[in-house]
Write a structure and sequence with these properties.
By secondary structure, this protein is an alpha+beta fold. Strands 6, 7, 10, 11, 13, 14, 15, 16 and 21 form a 9-stranded antiparallel β-sheet that branches. Strands 1-2-3-4 form a 4-stranded antiparallel β-sheet, with no helix packed on it. Strands 5-12-20-17 form a 4-stranded antiparallel β-sheet, with no helix packed on it.
Amino acid sequence: MTTLAQQVVLKEGPVFLLSHENGDIFGNTGLGLYYKDTRYLSLFSLQINEWTPPLLNFSGYRNFMGTFQYANDIMRLQSAETRPELLLLPQTLGIRRSRFISQGLHERIELANYNRFPVPISLTLLFGSDFRDIFDVRGFPRDKWGELLPPRIEGSKLLLPYKALDGVDRSTEVIFDLPPDAADVEMRESTIPTVEPGIMVPDVGAPSYHINMEVPVATLTWNFTLEPHVSRGPTSLSFHVMPRSGDEEDEPLGFAEEDSDSNPKSGRPLGHQNPKSNSRFDKAVHYMRDSYRKWDMESTLFTTDNEDFNVLLKRSKYDLRVLVEPVSFAGGDSTNNPKSGRPLGHQNPKSYDGGYFPSAGIPWYVCPFGRDSLITALQTLSLNPQIAVGTLRVLARYQGIREDPWREEQPGKILHELRMGEMARLGMVPHSPYYGSVDSTPLFVLLFVEMMRWLDSNSLYDEFLPNVLRAVEWIDKYGDIDGDGLIEYVAATSPGGISNQVWKDSGDSTQFPDGTLAETPFAAVEVQAYVYAAKKGLGELLRRKGDTITADRLIVEAEALRTLFNSAFWMEDIGFFSQGLDPNKVKVPTITSNPGHCLWCGIADEDKATKTVQRMIQPDMLSGWGLRTISDQSPSYNPMSYHNGSVWPHDNSIAAAGFKRYSYGREANRVITQIYEAAQHFRYMRLPELYCGFARDIVDHTGPTEYPVSCNPQAWAAAAPILMLHTMLGLEADASQDKLVLNPWLPDWLTSVQIQNLRVGEKRVDLRIDKQGDNCEVSLAHGNVSIDLEIIENSLRT
């Protein structure tokens, strides 16, 4: 297993590459080149004279592009062109791999000779693919696979074919700019997988397995004579690895077949033989850079006087860019028919401008995801509200229309997860799409309400309102299973379904102190808060739009839920909210981070909010690197678990926002500061999905401990710093009134914030916030559009 520190992740659109830090893909690991939930490369390695060159440095800072720099070890070379034996000193050859993702993997290998004499070398590339489904890679059980066919090598092309069980023929096509001097195909005696018990990730929803599979291997070799660097410069080889799926039209490569150099002679730098090929490579890189500049222009620019925090904000913005995909939209197509149009822009690039939809995270969740995408969109409204637009648009298209127990679909319900791989298509898993979450539907309504606060678009209101009202109907008809006024979920009965259908969805995340798992129907504490905020906000919006009858009903229902909530979930003896209620309405008394979501939604009574905040900032919860998911005094606490003691940045950003909502700005900043300081210990200052909940040791200067199989980058973790800045500023929008409300309270390490290109309705606003003692001065940039600013003076509680 490779850890986060040993991985390089590159992604663009639906294609992503997860490699070892040396650039290779190897072994029975999660590494690979993936497209639409299928791994198209499971073996990819580079050798120089049959040795793996030692790595000097690598960089995956740019999410779509990576570079790897190597040198040679000491080598003894034999060549007819030189002495019988040539001793090559170490670090006299430079090997550089540059790669980027755009519809596939594109790589250029450059070889530079820093000796005074020519050096003959052989460059060998190994390719293989198991074409395993992402569920298969994660350890989900299956008992049959398709057929791995022999690789085919024709001139400057390599084809790795697979005959799938779902009738979709998949293949990996590799196109080289220079045919190899030697090629070999090794077919293993058996490509039938062997299955062993084991666990790769903790949340597969079923017994997990470790699968070993031997794949056919294609070995291709090029022989070069490298001239001294000063006389010729580097020699290069470029190639393009393209995933092919028989269920769709192939995307255009952009590389004309006749342009490939077919000269079999080696020893001449490829870049000099075929300058067009390198020109195409460079142009494609420039295109990707331009797309990132476009993202910058569309998004709000946040700049502070703290350079480290600026790096964190920039990392968040670009991690979000790599995780979002443009949504196709021709107008008026947000229907509840799952086959109505193509949801993501890569499938129909001629009809973009439908917003952006964020995948949940790499590598396990590069797919449409309900809860994660909705929360990410809520976190990033101040950065780019088009994420909210695209998220609503895609989820509206897949809104439930029937009762289907296998997929847990119900009319009006919002999906949990949509997969496009072989196992979903065959019905081995119910993710086509799967609707097993209780919180996606109220979060869908809540996102609509908050998006309207920022955009106040009549066209978006008209487009999404029917879907939103159907979602409310689902809450009322299907969400309250036992008719007690609370929203519950039941554990899935179908194989592949989820037992705990909330954000803490691992099987052991709802435990009583004696270790007994809570049974279902289960009423989770944070879900009631989502429903309250959704109904209350929608009622206020409908009242403004003139539908007073529906508005009044929703607001009355919201207030009734608030009253019931504060009675049913509050534990007076502990002074905290229960994690949830079991079927007998017995409270699960574990101290968790979940009530932070309730504060964020405003459902808690004032006195109970005060006690909740004070309890959450105690050392058993606040680790020094952020809030743990549960108290370290709980019998089920394990700092290395997925949900029972780890730290999740998105969870912390929501809790901090909840603290600030109840005027606990100092406490909010304590949480934010710990996450900010933890981020400085991770590569590229990239916050992972989660990390271990060990306490911070000031004496021994310990850093946060990585969780080995965390998604990284991950959408709501990337969005956390945006919401944290939003919280520190107390930023709220009312686009219907051309109004911004700010209630800034900055920590000691931040004294100035500049905001440029902030979208409020159809206007773009520039602001500056400067700390002045305990207060802040807020000013609009000179010549800015008219906007009403309301500044709330701090009345912090202690």
